[in-house]
Write a structure and sequence with these properties.
mainly beta; 4-stranded mixed β-sheet
Length: 244
């Protein structure tokens, strides 16, 4: 069994705030967000070494996020940035990640993972990223049939996650608020299936069917002006693969 603990890291995160201006107009761009991260975890083997497992916990703090400066009127200029903001925001993100994978029995491969994540605006004491699902579960398996059917392999996978949403406000041409709105994608599951035939030691033929039940869902939710994208509908792919 192995135990690993990572140290504290302090760095400028790759999140530019060049388009957020500090007043008064025309304003100067805010400095990049800075942050610290902590992570600790365990990794080891299960079922007599047939499975590998990892468990980790993480905590991230970001400081210097731009927050509205109420001393100045709001402006939204496409090329010169938005005004006016102060670098006073603090955001925290924390959660756990678990992964298990390996061979349960001869010919039977499995992999499963679960992630719990929550983000919070510590400055305003409210959730920060509502588009990040709190729960995410992934499962995949493949099984080579025994005996005279050993040329065949069947399998499947699943992507299951909790809801994500966007809460925002509609504005008029003068950047005055009209009304709030909310776009919500409830929790959903997408299932995939696979069947493979080994023609000979060098050639295999595989059929993959994705989103088997043709689930209609928003993979991402954005705003009233865009960024709302459907997930890929049911589709199939036939692949011939050779090794030389």
């Amino acid at each position: 069994r192995d135990l690993y603990v990572t140290g504290v890291q302090t760095c400028a995160l790759p999140i530019s705030q060049a388009l957020l201006k500090q007043g008064p107009l025309p304003g100067n761009s805010l400095a990049p967000v800075k942050g610290k991260s902590w992570e600790a975890g365990l990794k080891g083997e299960l079922v007599d070494g047939r499975l590998n497992a990892t468990f980790s916990m993480f905590h991230v703090e970001r400081t210097g996020e731009g927050v509205k400066d109420t001393r100045y009127p709001s402006t939204n200029l496409e090329w010169s940035g938005n005004c006016c903001y102060l670098p006073q925001g603090k955001v925290t993100s924390r959660g756990v990640d678990v992964e298990v994978g390996g061979q349960l029995r001869p010919g039977w491969q499995v992999a499963a993972g679960y992630t719990y994540a929550t983000t919070r605006n510590a400055t305003e004491n409210k959730p920060f990223s509502s588009i990040t699902p709190r729960h995410l579960f992934k499962l995949s398996t493949a099984y080579t049939l025994p005996g005279g059917f050993s040329r065949w392999k069947v399998g499947g996978s699943a992507h299951i996650q909790s809801k994500h949403h966007v809460d925002d406000t509609l504005y008029d041409a003068n950047w005055e608020p009209i009304r709030p709105y909310s776009y919500v994608q409830g929790g959903y599951a997408v299932w995939n299936a696979m069947v493979q035939y080994r023609i000979d030691p060098r050639w295999t033929l595989a059929l993959n069917v994705n989103n088997v039940f043709d689930r209609v869902y928003y993979q991402t939710v954005g705003s009233a002006s865009g960024g709302n994208f459907y997930g890929t509908p049911r589709n199939a792919m036939l692949t011939l693969r050779g090794k030389f």
